[in-house]
Amino acid sequence: MADLPEPVTNPQIKYTQIFINNEWHNSVSGKTFPTFNPATEEKLADVQEGDKADVDKAVAAARAAFKIGSPWRTMDASQRGRLMHKLADLIERDRVYLASLEVLDNGKPFAEAYEGDLGATIDTLRYYAGWSDKVCGKTIPVDGPMFTYTRHEPVGVCGQIIPWNYPVMMVAWKIGPALACGNTVVLKPAEQTPLSALYVAALVVEAGFPPGVINIVPGYGPTAGAAIAEHMDVDKVAFTGSTDVGRIIQQAAGKSNLKRVSLELGGKSPLIVFADSDLDVAVETAHSGLFGNMGQCCCAGSRTFVQESIYDEFVKKSVERANSRTIGHGFDLNAEHGPQVDKEQFDKILGLIHSGKEEGAQLGCGGDRHGDKGYFVKPTVFYDVQDHMRIAKEEIFGPVQTIFKFKSMEEAIDRANNTTYGLAAGVFTKDIDKALTIANSVLAGSVWVNTYDPGLLQAPFGGFKMSGNGRELGEYALHEYTEVKTVTIKLAKKC
Amino acid sequence: MLRTALTRFSSARALSQALYSTAAAPKPNPSPDIRCNQLFINNEWVDSVSKKTFPTLNPSTGEVICEVAEGDKADVDIAVQAAKEAFRLGSPWRTMDASYRGVLLNRLADLMERDREYLANLETLDNGKPFSVSFATDLALSIKCYRYYAGWAGKNHGKTIPIDGDFFCYTRHEPVGVCGQIIPWNFPLLMQAWKLGPALSTGNVVVMKPAEQTPLTALYVAQLAKEAGFPPGVLNLIPGYGPTAGAAIAEHPEIEKVAFTGSTEVGKIIQRSAAENLKRVTLELGGKSPNVVFADTDLDYAVEKSHFGLFFNMGQCCCAGSRIYVEDKVYDEFVRRSTERAKRRTVGNPFDPNSEQGPQIDEEQMNKIIELIESGKKEGATLNCGGDRAGDRGYFIQPTVFSDVQDGMRINNEEIFGPVQQIARFKDIDEVVERANLNTYGLAASVFTSNIDKAIYMANSLRGGTVWVNTYDVFDAAAPFGGFKQSGSGRELGEYGLEAYTEVKTVTIRIPQKNA
């Protein structure tokens, strides 16, 4: 890995408006909303606040760009790929700036933003660029004198509502497959973190995308987000966020035009550590699998089940490791752990920590705020956690590790599956039978063996049960952005 | 709209101007410097073991461009060892992320883009095709082919399979290993891209022999591959002759797959040689492709496309539309207009932007073509224009049009590989399908008609690996290309192109209990 470049600690905020048709617009209402730096609680900028009227404009632009005969529709698929590669190149050119902007708006450590978030953003766009001219239909030998084939067409205007935990990376996860398949997009970044998405919008113009292909409308969920989910002329909505809001989106789709829905929601993912695993590796991986991104990961390994005979040792080492996790603001290159994204999250996490103490879990370390400025929460470890406790059942989305004891594999599987969530799971064992049995039995969209969340964009990611619907990443993501048309031409005779 | 477009592009100069209208026109340079003329093994340039060299000629003048190191069996042996080493388990190439192979291929494409003008000039110097075509077509398609296969790297998926019993069963799509690739002289850069793209995308290692007539651009690309960052031994180039270097590759016991593009005659030799160690074989060979023109088509458009389909690349196309069957009703008019078009075809120095047609590749080809032209005259076909060598320097041949071609004539059955167009008459659809298919080749075919039923019926009935409807010679890295019958075996390009470079391994692991 190359040395980390110097961050831009005071990045200029260039774009704060609504992006429609490759142009910058103020909101129809004239309103703006503030975005804050969670490390200092200070306002960074006022951003134009999009609402229904702005969403209407964006959808109209996206619809026009999607018309038969338009530059985007008539463009060679391989050329779409070229544009996506160009966008990836531009993001790479401005990688330090974007990573710095991300630190400012989201709070995550610069090293993470630069290496992890920006690396994945660039790689994901390049990955989907490669798919653009490989989305193929079939010719099918049907009964009768027919020539039958399928066209894999784009769905149309896709609404995409993304979260604040990986702001710019989520842009790539969403627009990657959408653009590869030839769709047009109206994207609402999270109100907590609109800045990096808006900068990418400027790069979209520089890359050469036709107007209207990508539109970005910053704003709030209940207003701009709802307008997208309820819109009669949006063909598909993709949402990443909480399960609660996911339900609202799905209902909105049903109430409006039955737009296709894909959801990537919350999780309470189990990580099962067997006695025959390498303890130090398991401790470290469980630690980063929970504490990474300040615990703000949908697939965080937030229920750590440890087999009886290694339990005490595991708890001891985990507490030690959590205590050594360095806290600081994002531009401190030694910081592993930054602030939570906003006050609402901060309060919720502290509330759940309080419930853990109240309900009788053992506190190994942490358990309250760090410092008095910025939304910093101390890395917290609870052990001897019981399955009925709130911290065992509810998604905390913060730096709170919960450790449970188990005896047998069967018991671990049952308890791991005893949740309405089903996003991910991890298992640590050297035994091949255990590994494959867990992998087959756990109800989770991604199962990791002897690792956790390696971040593989070539492989599909998504939830079982209430962790979501549909898959992102890999080839599978293309299915969500494809509408299959079957064409049958009757022939004079079968041939 | 199509018709006006074609008339606009009816001259090479017009094509050049249209393509370069927004950028500075690329400059033809008849004396590009020769930067690479040795063997390329392990990312190093070396002389051959024998120290022998062979000349490569400029077909426009017959003069020697330069000497090139001549590889033979001993050199192939060294290259194979280098390739094997690069393919060893645990090597940088074997342990590289598949997606990173794509990064390297995209880098190679970027470098070709950077040196596009130089490569186009070198290609025209060594091959003779017009510079405007080298730049606009050969370079464009080659670069796109590398980018296309860069996109496949990391997407060559195996499967997990629900077999009976308590088992976890999956397939791995592994690279085959050391691949020998023997490429022809008609599209040197493009043929190299068609071969290297899928092979490198899937993680194989390569020993390639470029054609002895046209080694120069292939060798320069090897240098670019090194600059792009491919590890040593992954790509090795051995210029040399077929019966020596080529045979050494086809016969080598440690080469696990051979891919050959060239004549059907040599294809058969390769297949027999490969049998010794059962190396996997894919062949892309000759053709005598039928082009069927119905009366219900835009005649001017069909004439222009049929002209292009035969005369493109001096007729040196495996898939040239070299048997044109024209429906009775429009036959005379078609012959008249085709003759007129052929007479207008400008033949001359390929560096001159006005030239549509350059020389044939070498004296051997030129003589073979002239001989077949003579047979056409002798066997009674009607010669409408051309029929002779053009000029007395370089290997130029006049655009030639035969009509009243009968099924038994040599010019109807043998691959000419030159600027010689055959036009025959037909009456009904079943008759023409039978005559079109009555040939040991099966590379391509085409039909010109406005009727949907005829179009689909012909497309489904013609025995050719590629069928074009209302067009000709449309190539895309995404669409598979290859031959029925003796035009070859296997397919190149598209996702299909990955198969020849993939070895499927099935892994079955016993598990305590299967669950669906």
Characterise the protein shown here.
The complex is a heterodimer of chains A (495) and B (516). With 495 residues, chain A is α/β, with parallel strands linked by helices. The termini of chain A are far apart. Chain A has helices spanning 52-65, 71-74, 77-93, 95-106, 110-131, 167-180, 195-207, 221-230, 243-255, 279-291, 308-323, 343-358, 390-393, 409-417, 432-441, 477-480; strands spanning 18-20, 23-25, 32-37, 42-48, 139-140, 146-154, 157-161, 184-188, 214-216, 236-240, 260-264, 270-273, 303-307, 362-365, 380-383, 400-406, 424-428, 446-449, 468-469, 482-490. By secondary structure, chain B is an alpha/beta fold. In chain B, the strands form five sheets. Chain B has a seven-stranded mixed β-sheet with strand order 14-15-16-13-12-17-18, with helices on both faces.
Tell me briefly what this model is:
Chain B: Residues 45-507 form the Aldehyde dehydrogenase domain. The complex is a heterodimer of chains A (495) and B (516). Chain A is an alpha/beta fold.
Secondary structure blueprint with pairings:
The complex is a heterodimer of chains A (495) and B (516).
Chain A (H helix, E strand, L loop, with lengths): L17 E3 L2 E3 L6 E6 L4 E7 L3 H14 L5 H4 L2 H17 L1 H12 L3 H22 L7 E2 L5 E9 L2 E5 L5 H14 L3 E5 L6 H13 L6 E3 L4 H10 L5 E5 L2 H13 L4 E5 L5 E4 L5 H13 L11 E5 H16 L19 H16 L3 E4 L14 E4 L6 H4 L6 E7 L2 H9 L6 E5 L3 H10 L4 E4 L18 E2 L7 H4 L1 E9 L5
Parallel strand pairs in A: 7-8, 7-10, 8-9, 10-11, 12-13, 12-17, 13-16, 15-16, 17-18
Antiparallel strand pairs in A: 1-2, 3-4, 5-6, 6-20, 11-19, 14-15
Chain B lengths: L1 H7 L3 H8 L19 E3 L2 E3 L6 E6 L4 E7 L3 H15 L4 H4 L2 H17 L1 H12 L3 H22 L7 E2 L5 E9 L2 E5 L5 H14 L3 E5 L6 H13 L6 E3 L4 H10 L5 E5 L2 H11 L5 E5 L5 E4 L5 H13 L11 E5 H17 L18 H16 L3 E4 L14 E4 L6 H4 L6 E7 L2 H9 L6 E5 L3 H10 L4 E4 L18 E2 L12 E9 L6
Parallel strand pairs in B: 7-8, 7-10, 8-9, 10-11, 12-13, 12-17, 13-16, 15-16, 17-18
Antiparallel strand pairs in B: 1-2, 3-4, 5-6, 6-20, 11-19, 14-15
Helix pairs in contact in B: 3-10, 5-7, 5-9, 6-7, 7-8, 12-13
